[in-house]
Amino acid sequence: MSWDRIPVPRAFRCWSLRRASETALQNSRRAVEDQLKICGHKRDDDVFELFLSKKELTEVIDLSRFKKLKYLWLHHNKLHGITFLTRNYCLTELYLNNNAIFEIQGLHYLPSLHILLLHHNELTNLDATVKELKGMLNLKILSLYQNPLCQYNLYRLYIIYHLPGVELLDRKHFAFANNVDKTVFDDPEDAVFVRSMKRSVMTFSSMNWDTVPTREERYLEEEGTEPAQMLTVTLR
User: Which Pfam families does the protein's record reference (predicted)?
Assistant: First the structure.
């Protein structure tokens, strides 16, 4: 006896997805309210940090009501995206590691962000990720390791080039921004001279054939004749 697969109506599938999303948002709202009770906050303006890690969250409610929020922990959840941080302009530290995030669209709304941890996620598009982070002029600490995009060739150089303000990438220090000479010279020629002195030195050596004796000269060579000399040219 065979059983034919009965197709599920599209309306029912949409209803199921909507119901699942509503349930996820309810769980998120409950987690936020629990944190507010634990910290004793009665006003939204009093909230400077939220600890929402390890809550099995798949979605997060809009957090724009917390306009003075500075620290947000959401690591070790099951998030897929970031759409809940549209007006949290004061946020300076955001911990999103160990989730299932595959895109970070929405992070460019956070100009004050100083620390961003995104390691152990599912980010694959390096260009889109960097584009979203370019507007964060205050970003100093960034982690992206254990994402598929880290498999790209020259991944670190690409990040360093496009985000020169970052000082700690994937737990490794570099000072790309601090290597830029910011000294201002009154005379442009002084600036050119100083810059030229910092270039790498290139040296080329070759035989000075004017000092090499011919066969006849070698035959008639007398004692005290100077040997052939090398000609060296140094360039910057």
Answer: LRR_9 (PF14580)
